[in-house]
């Protein structure tokens, strides 16, 4: 397993290109199941999760060809479809459950393994099941697999989700676009990745309106045609790299960044004393002056503070002036980066869903271990300005969601390198 070594360093300077959104692409790729015609995705990120989704779609009978060094994904699904999403692939990546809605819409049945829990939580699927059942699907759990059937096809319905689940919203959208009649999804997730999926489905001929709000209306159509769609910018990669100059000092421009994708995060950076400026080519970030100020953070569904940036924000607050309280309201176990940051000298107390961070002057390099995707990158951010050397092990977690992190950070002056493991 590879490790990444970071040596604490001074101010950063330069530009970091931001890739297409992993969490948008993982919802867009299954949309190919909805049509016999090809769906081409441009601005696709080069990540291991995308390769896992490619594997899964291939196992169902769809084709995904990576072009232009992986930045373009040519997908199609015109042959025989095998509607079984196998445990061996699904357990590796929860987003595999996003084939459930499109398979039901296209074929009227699907067998999808339950993903099982992961480091950050139990990750149940009850909200997905209730949403698809509202469209007429009968879903039962057998041997760890969800067996879903919609004899006679899906029918439009009005459904209110108990929680604005991102994945359940995506599954509902991809099922309802081919259902008979009109559907309305209430308390829908409002994330930019939902908006991006709706735009792609509309380009394929779907009739959708209201995406980005809590109420989305879908008018079912008989079939969808092919399309070419650009994957939206990755707001989580964007926020992650904006924290590098915030932690180290200096000035970095994140190319392709848009403040409207992460407004609540930018408000918190501003409160912490970080300058954030939208330019024509991206977002320019620098530390205003003096020390970063402590701020409190509560993670919420969009447009609230993103849970996927909580770990990275904690890395900044470890050396802020004062005490910050972070409340994680989306996942039940998303503070595993805290004990690793404590090994670097941070002062953090975790009680249930709250983490209290008492700012210290400087962190110290140490050997630390990545536990999940966002925790991994928070350790790297913390190491950028720590005294001495930090070695982050198990960086395969990192490669799921960040392409070439050591290259992107080295390009702005960070002392970071990857050490190939066995
Ligand atoms: C998506 O996961 C993202 N993944 C996650 O990003 C992100 O953290 C999450 O949305 C919240 O923004 C992808 O888009 C591939 P949810 P998803 O359904 O759809 C509970 C990353 O780091 N829940 O909105 O699985 C669930 O347990 C990843 O890139 C149910 O209880 O998130 C969680 O506590 C991590 N029952 C909360 O809702 C359900 O049926 C949010 O889940 C579904 C979810």
TrEMBL record:
Species classification: Bacteria, Pseudomonadati, Pseudomonadota, Alphaproteobacteria, Rhodobacterales
Subcellular location, principal: cytoplasm
Record EC number: 2.5.1.7
GO molecular function (one): UDP-N-acetylglucosamine 1-carboxyvinyltransferase activity
Similarity comment: Belongs to the EPSP synthase family. MurA subfamily.
Coiled coil residues, start to end: none
Localization, UniProt: Cytoplasm
Record-given protein name: UDP-N-acetylglucosamine 1-carboxyvinyltransferase
């Amino acid at each position: 397993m590879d490790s990444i070594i970071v040596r604490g360093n001074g101010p950063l300077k330069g530009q970091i290109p931001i890739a297409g959104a992993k969490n948008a692409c993982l919802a867009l790729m299954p949309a190919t199941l909805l049509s016999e015609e090809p769906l081409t995705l441009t601005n696709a990120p080069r990540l291991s999760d995308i390769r896992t989704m490619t594997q899964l779609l291939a196992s169902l009978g769809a084709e995904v060809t990576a072009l232009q060094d992986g930045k373009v994904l040519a997908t199609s699904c015109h042959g025989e479809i095998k509607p079984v999403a196998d445990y061996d692939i699904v357990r590796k990546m929860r987003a595999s459950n996003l084939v459930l809605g499109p398979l039901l819409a296209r074929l009227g049945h699907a067998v999808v393994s339950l993903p099982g829990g992961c480091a950050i939580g139990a990750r149940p699927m009850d909200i997905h099941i209730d949403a698809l059942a509202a469209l007429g699907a009968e879903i039962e759990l057998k041997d760890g697999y969800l067996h879903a059937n919609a004899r006679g096809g899906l029918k439009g319905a009005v459904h209110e989700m108990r929680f604005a689940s991102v994945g359940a919203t995506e599954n509902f959208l991809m099922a309802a676009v081919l259902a008979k009649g009109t559907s309305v999804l209430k308390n829908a997730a409002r994330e930019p990745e939902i908006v991006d999926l709706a735009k792609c489905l509309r380009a394929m001929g779907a009739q959708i309106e209201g995406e980005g709000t809590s109420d989305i209306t879908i008018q079912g159509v008989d079939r969808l045609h092919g399309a070419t769609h650009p994957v939206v910018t990755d707001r989580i990669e964007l926020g992650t790299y904006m924290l590098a100059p915030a932690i180290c000092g200096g000035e970095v421009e994140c190319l392709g960044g848009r403040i409207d994708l992460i407004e609540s995060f930018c408000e918190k950076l501003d409160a912490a004393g970080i300058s954030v400026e939208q330019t024509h080519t991206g977002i320019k970030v620098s530390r205003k002056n003096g020390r970063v100020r402590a701020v409190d953070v509560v993670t919420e569904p969009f447009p609230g503070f993103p849970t996927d940036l909580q770990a990275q924000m904690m890395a900044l607050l470890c050396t802020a002036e004062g005490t910050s309280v972070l409340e994680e309201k989306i996942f039940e176990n998303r503070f595993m980066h805290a004990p690793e940051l404590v090994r670097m000298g941070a002062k953090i107390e975790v009680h249930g869903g709250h983490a209290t961070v008492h700012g210290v002057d400087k962190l110290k390099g140490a050997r630390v271990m990545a536990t999940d995707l966002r925790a991994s990158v928070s350790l790297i951010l913390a190491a950028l300005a720590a005294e001495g050397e930090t070695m982050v092990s198990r960086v395969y977690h990192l490669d799921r969601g960040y392409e070439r992190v050591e290259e992107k950070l080295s390009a702005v002056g960070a002392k970071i390198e990857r050490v190939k493991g066995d």
